[in-house]
Write a structure and sequence with these properties.
The chain has 280 residues and is α/β, with parallel strands linked by helices. The chain has 2 domains: 2-130, Rossmann fold; 131-162 and 188-252 and 262-280, UDP-galactose 4-epimerase, domain 1. Helix content is 46%, strand content 15%. The chain contains 13 helices and 9 strands. The chain has helices at 9-20, 36-40, 53-60, 74-87, 106-120, 141-147, 164-176, 196-207, 218-227, 232-246, 256-261, 268-274, 276-279; strands spanning 2-4, 25-29, 44-47, 65-68, 91-96, 124-130, 149-152, 184-188, 212-215. The protein has a 7-stranded parallel beta sheet with strand order 3-2-1-4-5-6-8, with helices on both faces. Strands 7-9 form a two-stranded parallel ribbon. The radius of gyration is 19 Å and the shape is globular. InterPro entries: Ergot_Alk_Oxidoreductase, NAD(P)-bd_dom_sf, NmrA-like.
Length: 280
């Protein structure tokens, strides 16, 4: 039995793919109404959340493999690590991103803290270190529909953007594999380095209408995100990240996705085509 710890953009697709492989899979969710389609394909649901140790322990019963995917809050993910250790889980596959103890971005410091404790736990682990998600572009859809364009403080920084569905596919492939991948860290990217200017060009092509991109300062980007409804702390963290993108922080590619899946990673154009209705 495989446990997937949340049913967000990566977790939901991981569950779906595992069920396609006819594997027994359980998912921890807060609202079962949102995952009816997973129940329909045979997934087992446990209602709870990552702040609730009793619900995590309940979900962990009989589990051999955990796919640890969440927003990356240390207390929550470490609840899962400790529960997995108590339950004698054989391996943990953790979805993560760049992690550093001294990063200016809190999210990366959090990931470092989680990874360090996972490694110290003695559990068998595999780390899936993803570059920026293509799905983050979906947050730009309201601005694109309203103004015909979008802005960012990422400047012309390049990113090895990856479709979250490919991250899920790698997680499902490793969870289903007889090969353990123990102690491995895989870097997950799309097939090409992409700037936000190229995102605009790709959307223009797919949508059949012009989509513009304009560069923003840190303060302009932060304030735009706050105006769009993001909490100030999260908006500041995101603007910090985009500033690092401008400096080349995400300018890296890897062949791990095609090697692990036996097919190319999805391109930005494929992603935009699949989500065209969101931008229309």
């Amino acid at each position: 039995m495989i446990l997937v710890t949340t049913a967000g953009k990566v977790g939901f697709e991981t569950v779906r793919l595992l069920r396609q492989k006819a594997l027994s899979v359980r998912v921890l969710v807060r609202n079962p109404e949102k995952v009816k389609s997973l129940v329909e394909i045979g997934a087992e649901i446990v209602v709870g959340d990552l702040d609730s140790l009793p619900s995590i322990d309940k979900a962990m019963k009989g589990i051999q493999t955990v796919v640890l995917v969440s927003p990356g809050i240390p207390a929550q993910e470490l609840n899962v690590v400790h529960s997995a250790k108590r339950a004698g889980v054989k391996r943990v596959i953790k979805i993560t991103n760049d992690a550093s103890a001294d990063s200016p971005i809190a999210r990366r410091r959090w990931q470092y803290e989680i990874e360090a404790e996972l490694l110290a736990s003695g559990l068998n682990y595999t780390l899936l270190r993803a570059n920026a998600y293509m799905q983050n572009v979906l947050a730009l859809a309201p601005a694109i529909k309203k103004t015909g364009g979008f802005g960012s403080s990422a400047g012309l920084g390049r990113m090895g953007m990856i479709d979250a569905r490919d991250v899920a596919a790698v997680a499902a492939e490793i969870a289903a594999s007889s090969v353990t991948h123990v102690g491995k860290t895989y870097k997950l990217t799309g097939p090409a380095l992409i700037t936000y200017s190229e995102v605009a060009a790709t959307l223009s092509k797919v949508l059949g209408r012009p989509v513009s991109y304009h560069e923003l300062s840190f303060e302009e980007d932060k304030n735009a995100m706050i105006h769009a409804g993001l909490p100030k702390e999260l908006a500041e963290m995101n603007a910090q990240f985009f500033g690092m993108v401008a400096g080349g922080d995400c300018d890296w590619l890897s062949e791990d996705v095609p090697v692990l899946l036996g097919r190319p990673a999805r391109s930005l154009e494929e992603f935009a085509t699949d989500y065209v209705s969101t931008f229309s």
